[in-house]
């Protein structure tokens, strides 16, 4: 097993696989079941599926579809989107999901993180934070459901949610999403200073060297979307994933 996980992050909208650019303009890139089968063949260690409209539409996860995903996955599956209660999480785990990722509900009610951790264990609970920089470059917590930044210090919120029981943090750099321009390394460094749980960095990954840079900055694992679904200057849809030995060699310097 690799020292650092490299996780395809698949975005779901209306049961289709999409990819966004800075959280906007979702582009249909294919059927999620087909994508999962391809990632199976490529022996991916872990997969993350995020329904980007469930919370915005005030609906529950699409359990029937997620059950299909879990049935197809040869690897551990994490799911996020529309989770607001312990009962919903319970249903997802019963379908074969191994981790649940929550954001909106955690920001509204941090106590939910504690209840989930007590019921299922912290290792199964990911808290996702979206961070967007303002015109001065200041990093701020962003609520994708409302499309607005939130008041307060994001590092404080991060610490509070981990203290509440989150076993892992998904740190999403909104300005880097889909840009293939490299990670926000400073953001990763700042988050790492405040964390004692695994940090999964997502946003901007375009190459193996970007993955290495994110890990060197403090990420425990790296997730990516565009890097695994787009190919070439015209962003043609082609699902790819690095060879195991490429990733193994990449992280040797970190061992």
From TrEMBL:
Pathway in which this enzyme or protein is active: Amino-acid biosynthesis; L-histidine biosynthesis; L-histidine from 5-phospho-alpha-D-ribose 1-diphosphate: step 5/9
Keyword Cell membrane in record: no
CDD domains, sorted: HisF
Catalytic activity: 5-[(5-phospho-1-deoxy-D-ribulos-1-ylimino)methylamino]-1-(5-phospho-beta-D-ribosyl)imidazole-4-carboxamide + L-glutamine = D-erythro-1-(imidazol-4-yl)glycerol 3-phosphate + 5-amino-1-(5-phospho-beta-D-ribosyl)imidazole-4-carboxamide + L-glutamate + H(+)
Subunit-level organization: Heterodimer of HisH and HisF.
UniProt entry keywords in alphabetical sequence: Amino-acid biosynthesis, Histidine biosynthesis, Lyase
Function: IGPS catalyzes the conversion of PRFAR and glutamine to IGP, AICAR and glutamate. The HisF subunit catalyzes the cyclization activity that produces IGP and AICAR from PRFAR using the ammonia provided by the HisH subunit.
Gene Ontology molecular function, alphabetical: lyase activity
Gene3D superfamilies: Aldolase class I
EC number: 4.3.2.10
Annotated InterPro entries: Aldolase_TIM, His_biosynth, HisF, IGPS_HisA/HisF, RibuloseP-bd_barrel
Family note: Belongs to the HisA/HisF family.
Name of the protein this chain belongs to: imidazole glycerol-phosphate synthase
Spans traversing the lipid bilayer: none
UniProt keyword annotation of Amino-acid biosynthesis present: yes
Top EC class for this record: lyase
